[in-house]
Structures are given as structure tokens and as C-alpha cells.
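idk why but the lab printer keeps eating my pages so im just putting this in chat instead. protein + adenosine-5'-triphosphate:
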Amino acid sequence: MLSIENLHASIQDDKQQIKNILCGINLQINPGEVHAIMGPNGSGKSTLANALAGREDYQITAGKVEFDHKDLLALTPEERAARGLFLAFQYPVEIPGVNNMYFLKAAVNSIRKQRNLSQLDAIDFLKLVKEKMQEVGMDEKFLHRAVNEGFSGGEKKRNEILQMLMLEPRLAILDETDSGLDIDALQAVAKGVNSLRSKDRSIIVVTHYQRLLDYIVPDVIHVMVKGQIIKSGGKELALELEAKGYGWLECA
Amino acid sequence: MSNEYIKQVVNKNYEYGFVTAIESDTFAPGLSEEIIRKISARKNEPDFMLNYRLQAYRHWLTMKSPEWAHVHYPEIDFQKIIYYSAPKVKKDGPKSLEEVDPKLLETYEKLGIPLHERAKLAGVAVDAVFDSVSVATTFKEKLAEAGVIFCSFSDAVQNHPELIETYLGTVVPYRDNFFAALNAAVFSDGSFVYIPKGVRCPMELSTYFRINAANTGQFERTLIIADEGSYVSYLEGCTAPMRDENQLHAAVVELVALENAQIKYSTVQNWYPGDEEGRGGIYNFVTKRGACRGKNSKISWTQIETGSAITWKYPSVVLQGDNSVGEFYSVALTNHRQQADTGTKMIHIGKNTRSTIISKGISAGFGQNTYRGLVRVLPTAINARNYTQCDSLLLSDTCGAHTFPTINAKNPTAHIEHEASTSKIGEDQLFYCRQRGLNQEDAVTMIVNGFCKKVFNELPMEFAVEAQKLLEVSLEGSVG
Ligand SMILES: Nc1ncnc2c1ncn2[C@@H]1O[C@H](COP(=O)(O)OP(=O)(O)OP(=O)(O)O)[C@@H](O)[C@H]1O
Ligand SMILES: [Mg+2]
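predcted complex ->
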């Protein structure tokens, strides 16, 4: 499904200094697998997620990424989305004045159009969205508010999951979707993600907490430090990290 | 990258740039007492009108073109402008739509404004002004049943001279400014509305202004009077052909709201903006003012300004009546070399008067967008309130946004709030939308529409859709 080879990415900061953030990432994800990425703050987890989604601020300086055996890096962000790549943002953006339902419908239909599917009409759309909102435990009043405007941290995260369920991605990347969630929200999010799990979908979960992985059980856990994956292992690795922190790995 | 893309989105061609080949009765260029007498005679005006024009003209001769606005343009040669051009008609003018030249009807069809009553937007009466004169007013009879007068200014001068004499120039005196004086001297037509006491106008009224002839100035005049306890919603739309020369549009709009009356005035201004290099386009120098004369009266201005090479206008409200309310909602978009200097004046005179100002400026390309506002509270205005919100959105590194708010409060009980913001269209927002599958163009349109939402909400429904479309077209080609 996704194959990352020796990916290097850098960014130009405000002072025009080039800063290398990803320093040779290698990652293979097969259909149906769930991978977790953990690692200290600033290690490059969000950078990887954003680079995969096509954010142009990041310069890809070396490496190769294939998604469904096609060159992912050659595609625009919207083309990647149309092919089924979804990123639940660590910090979802507010879009003042744009109705949440309108946004969601435009997104769904834009992706359907790029996939040569018929457009959902208002009635079918509403039926579907109400169903999914129930699944993530969101009140319908959020449909009528502006996208993420004034949403609490947890509400924004639920809204990301709602979008994910509506767009039915083939590869979902969840960037700290569990941060700032209460227990109920955490379970709702996990339920949403698990409902999406299937043999031809893959999921990457970026998280700091082992707790999420109790609900969304990963096949593989990777540890990222300073722009590199320095260790991979099974789900028990999360417990070890929880107990020992990252220090022992960095020194190794 | 987003700059280039915004460029693409903002650069769609002007759709209304065609010229209608029609025979016109056109004066030679130039301005003099003789021309003014000729205009007045052509329109068979009573003496008070001719005198008014001549007084205005003599006063205008003593004035200088103003220079304080944040706009730049070469000096206008007023002797090169044609002050009267009318489509030729058999005799006095069309008595019914059947008599209107089919070419004219076609022109309005092309503009998306069918004048055939049956084909019209349900519930909207239209007055169409072509170059200098009104060519058709629809739904006259239906409105007459309600006692509403909606006709061309010329017809009103003929049929309701007492109303014209009472109100003309009482809100915008010809001494007010250079362009108001010029307009008072040479205006050739426009729309007139009178809503009688206690009547809620049964439909939206609208006027479509079209400049067709070359080198012609359009100087129309609109007068709306809402008698006690009445209500009217009025919309004006404007387009012009693409021409390399600049054309002058210097209109005057006067609104009068008596006790408990309400006037809602909406504008969708899409005059030809000139080309990418800034050649051609309309100079839109307009004086618009409303007087809330009676207690509890209310006047709302809503404007969507996407056209013109230069826009220079400040729809204002004079709040005389106690508890009266003035509102100004504005979206101004400038792209390429367009310049807009717009805003409002709210003059609080009566007690408990309230005003709201919401201004949204969008600049792209090399566009320059200025908000200029004045909130004045006179000593008599006890407990006056004003809320101003003034936001600018920049779509390129080469455009500009400027704000000049002035507050002048002479009463200590006044409550004045002002909020302002300037932001660049967010990379984060664009990326978020694109990650959800929207292409850049749709993403920009969506974000800009969201930015303007508060203003669009004030437009009558039919026109809100039109305004959004217009914005989409004006934005096309502005990103890359
Ligand atoms: N636009 C930017 N300008 C400058 N530095 C940046 C920019 N974006 C990311 N960085 C830097 O790159 C590094 C990696 O950031 P990233 O957000 O990928 O970390 P992360 O692993 O997601 O951290 P966290 O766990 O705190 O979310 C950080 O040092 C960050 O400051
Ligand atoms: Mg992060």
C-alpha cells in the first residue's frame, strides 16, 4: 500500500535557513495494517504526515514514496486525497464563515468526482452524515457551525474523525488525534477508526500515549527520533516506552 | 505557489463586455449651460428642474476635483465627455415593453436580466437604465395597486413633480461635493421610488444600470422615499462594455426614511474593471446617502463591489430620528490594477441612535483596497452606539489594504466599538481544504466566501447567490 524509501525532507525557516527534519525514513505498510508512530516532541512525526499529504512547505530532498505502486510525490494534495490518503491534523484549521456541512459535502463530492462517482444529493448526504455523526458522538448542531470555528480541542478532533468516516480513505494518517480527548471522546474516536479497519485499508496513528493503542491495537510500532525511525516492534514496545521513555533508545 | 494560484483564480475574463449596436440620440461631447438646457428641454422638464440644474452647474464651476482619496488616476477632461445619450425611440419613449427595441431587450437577456415580466425572477420588479435613460420598468401595475410608485426619474418629474421638488437634493445637496454637483447639473435619468404610509412593498425592487455608448458618462440619480411605517428592499446592479478608455460614472442616490420606515438598499456593482494592465474600466465616483428622518426608522446599505477601475463611494446614514438605525455591510474586491476607496459615514444626531459597520476588503494582484469610515456623534445624540468591524484579506504580496477609521464623538454617553484585522489568505486553510479533496480554486473561493459571509447574509436571497457567483468569477485566476 505505502512504501517509503530513504525519505529526506527539509524546511526553510523564517531566516531562510534550511533545516533538515526527516533524515532517511524507511517504512512499509501493507493493506489492512495499522502502524503506530511514537517519538519525542519535535522528532518529525507531523512533518512526515504532512509531507505524505503533500504540504508544499516541505522540500523533499531525497527518497521515494509509492502509494499503490504509484509515485505519490508527483501528485498534488487534492489528487492524493482523491486516491484515498487522509490526514487527521494535529491542529485542525478553523475556516470562519464556511458552514461545516457545506464544507463536508463539497469535500465528499469533489473526491467522488475525481473518482468518477456520481455526486451525492442533499438527501443522501444528510442521511449519511447523520449516521456517521452518531458513530462519533457528535451533535447535529455542529453541521451548522463554521468549520472548526470556536470548536473545543476535543470537538475539533471528533470533527476530523467525522470527515475521515465520510471520505472513506484507503490510507488514514491520524496525527495525535487522541491528544486532549476525554475518555468518552477517546473511545468514540477509537470506535470510528476501528469501524474503518478492513483488509484493504491501512492506518498510521501518531501518538504519545500507549492508552490509545489499547483501543486501536497496532500491528507495528515505530519509534521516531531526530527524523529517523530508530526502532520498530510489536505492540508491547509501547508499554516499554511508557515505562522507560525514549532516553535508552537515543543512547543506543 | 499560492500567489500564482490566487492570480489564476482572480483573472477570469469580464463576461459583460459586449457592445450593443443601437441607434442613439447622442449629444456632442462637452459641458456648458447650453448642454444643460438641452438636456432639460429633451426631457421636457418643469422650470424648477432647469433652475436646479443651472444652480448646480454654476456651483460646480467654482469647485475642484477632490484629491484626498487613496486613488490615482489621470485628470479627467470634462469637455470630452458626452452628457446625454439615449437609445432612439419612435416618439416619447416606450409606453410598454412591446415598444422597447428588441435589441435592448436582448442586451438585458444577455446580462441575465430578462425584462419580460413573465420570464422574470418571481417577485422582483426591474427598472433598466441604458446609458442615460430608463428603458423599461416591469410590474408597474402590480405595484400601483399597492400604491407604490416605481418608475424612471424622468417619469417621476413628469407625473409626480411635487414629490421631486420636495425631496430632490435634500439628502445630498449639490454643494456636497464636486461629483454631486456635476450629477445635479447633468443627470439624465435614474430610478424613483415612493412607498406610501404603512405599505410593505410587495416585491423587491431593482434597477440595472448599463453603460453602452463610448465616451459617455453615466450620471444617474436615484431617489427613494419611504413614508411612515413603510418598508422597501431595493437592489441595483451595474455592468458596462469593455473599452480601452476610462468612462465616468458619477451617480447620486438619496434615501429618505420617515417615522418607523425601513429601507434596505443593496448594490451588486460589476462595472467593467479594466484589463490586467489597468487599461480602461469605469471610474465609479458615487455619492450615496440616506436620511433617517423619523423616529425608529432604519436604513441599511449592503454593497458588493467587484467591478470598476476606481471605486470611490461612502454610502452613509444621517441618523436624525430618535432610536433610528443605520447599517453598512460591504464587500469590496480589487484585483489587477483596481482601486477602491470605500466605506461609510454614520452621523448620529437623535437619541438612542445605533449604527453597525461591517466592511470586508479583499485585495488580489496589484489591487488597492481602502476602508474609510467616519462615525460622528453630535452633542444631541444621547446614548448613541456604533459597532465597526473592518477586515481585510490579502491574496497576493503585491496588493494593498488600508484603513482610515475616524471617530468624532461629542457626547460622553456614546458607546463606540471598533475592531479591525488584516490577514493573508492562510496556507494552512488552503492546505486543509486541499487535503480534503478540494482543488485550489474552489478552496480559495470557499475561504473568501466564508470571509464575506456576514455581508452576504444581508443580501436578499436571490442576489446572495448572484453575489457569490460574481465573487467566484472575479477571483478566478488569482492563485497559483
Ligand atoms: N514551518 C517550520 N519552520 C521551522 N521549523 C519547523 C517548521 N515545521 C516544523 N519545524 C521543526 O521541525 C521539527 C519537527 O517538527 P514536527 O512537528 O514534525 O514534530 P513532531 O514529531 O510532530 O512533534 P510533536 O510530538 O510535538 O507534535 C521541529 O523541531 C519543528 O520546530
Ligand atoms: Mg506533531
